[in-house]
Write a structure and sequence with these properties.
This protein is α+β, with helices and mostly antiparallel strands. Helix content is 41%, strand content 24%. The chain has a domain of 39 residues. It is built from four helices and five strands, in the order ααβββββαα. The chain has a three-stranded antiparallel β-sheet with strand order 1-2-5. The longest helix is centred in the N-terminal third of the chain and has 20 residues. The protein starts with a helix and ends with a helix.
């Protein structure tokens, strides 16, 4: 799904003009990026958590020459799906083996 398709779907569901929906989604994504840039994490209960992960420098191999190269340390954004999101993606597959997972899933509000 592209951002334009997401805007179309949300605009139809929320009965808002597409330009307003696009502005809200753009600002939402920008707020997440700004928080990560500031070193904060963003947690959306039931959906997931955006945070920064720090990768240490390491030795790598140039696939063209086969020579060793040093890969510098860097910080990368990461997303960890929440329990409710994972349960939804599993399409009813029991994640913890608990018989009450389906009942809990039906009562969970995702947004």
């Amino acid at each position: 799904m592209t951002k334009a398709e997401l805007v179309d779907q949300i605009a139809a569901t929320a009965h808002l003009p597409k330009h307003q929906t696009d502005a809200v989604i753009t600002r939402f994504l920008q707020a997440i990026m700004d928080a990560l840039h500031a070193g904060e994490s963003v947690e959306l209960r039931g959906f997931g958590r955006f945070r920064l992960r720090h990768r240490q420098s390491r030795a790598g191999r140039n696939p063209r020459t086969g020579g060793m190269v040093q890969i510098p340390a860097k910080t990368v954004p990461a997303f960890t799906a929440g329990k409710a999101f994972q349960a939804l993606v599993q399409n009813g597959t029991e994640t913890s083996g608990d018989a009450n997972d389906a009942a809990t899933h039906k009562q969970t509000t995702y947004w």
